[in-house]
């Protein structure tokens, strides 16, 4: 097995993935939590699978995530070579781009490998706006 390179570190960050669709939110000031217990991606160097539970918690503004498109988006990671730290940050980036939430947190709780488990959390907080 070779050493990790900068190319490995960037792998998967810009790979094409299915779009995340949204629908018009009807209510203000509430929180949505989506739990995805069968997240899978692939190590960009060893190509061994990584498994974990991804949780997306957000406060919607004008749009809510459409779950079927989110499922297709998440399933596209199954063959994607990406570090799971990068996957969690990319999921956050893509969710924020799709629905422009008030706030959002994406957490990945990954299955232990070699006796080590990882919990990765990425958070977004929108700048205050009056509209």
Percent of residues in β-strands:
35-45%
What is the H/E order? HEEEEHHEE
Structural class: alpha+beta
Into which percent range does the helicity of residues fall?
A: 10-25%
Poorly predicted runs? none
Judging from the principal axes of the Cα atoms, what is the shape?
elongated
Radius of gyration: 15 Å
Q: Tally of extended strands?
A: 6
Main β-sheet, spatial strand arrangement: 2-3-5-6
What is the end-to-end distance?
53 Å
What would you call the quaternary organization? single chain
Task: Describe the SSE topology.
Blueprint lengths: L5 H5 L11 E3 L7 E11 L6 E11 L3 E3 L1 H9 L8 H16 L3 E11 L2 E10 L6
Antiparallel strand pairs: 1-4, 2-3, 3-5, 5-6
Structural key phrases:
131 residues, alpha+beta, 4-stranded antiparallel sheet, two-stranded antiparallel ribbon, 6 strands, 23% helix, 37% strand, elongated
Describe the structure.
- With about 130 residues, the protein is of the alpha+beta class.
- Helix content is about 25%, strand content about 35%.
- The chain has three helices and six strands.
- A four-stranded antiparallel sheet has the order 2-3-5-6, covered by helices on one side. A two-stranded antiparallel ribbon has the order 1-4.
- It starts with 5 loop residues before the first helix and ends in a 6-residue tail after the last strand.
Summarize the structure.
The chain is an alpha+beta fold and 131 residues long.
């Amino acid at each position: 097995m070779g050493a990790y390179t900068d190319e490995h570190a960037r792998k998967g960050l810009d790979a094409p993935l299915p779009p995340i669709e949204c629908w018009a939110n009807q209510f203000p000031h509430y929180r949505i939590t989506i739990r995805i217990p069968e997240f899978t991606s692939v190590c960009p160097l060893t190509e061994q699978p990584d498994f974990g539970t991804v949780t997306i918690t957000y406060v919607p503004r004008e749009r809510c995530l459409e779950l079927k498109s989110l499922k297709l988006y998440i399933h596209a990671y199954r063959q994607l070579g990406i570090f799971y730290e990068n996957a969690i940050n990319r999921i956050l980036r893509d969710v924020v781009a799709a629905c422009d939430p008030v706030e959002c947190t994406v957490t990945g709780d990954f299955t232990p490998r070699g006796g080590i488990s990882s919990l990765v959390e990425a958070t977004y907080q929108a700048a205050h706006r009056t509209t």
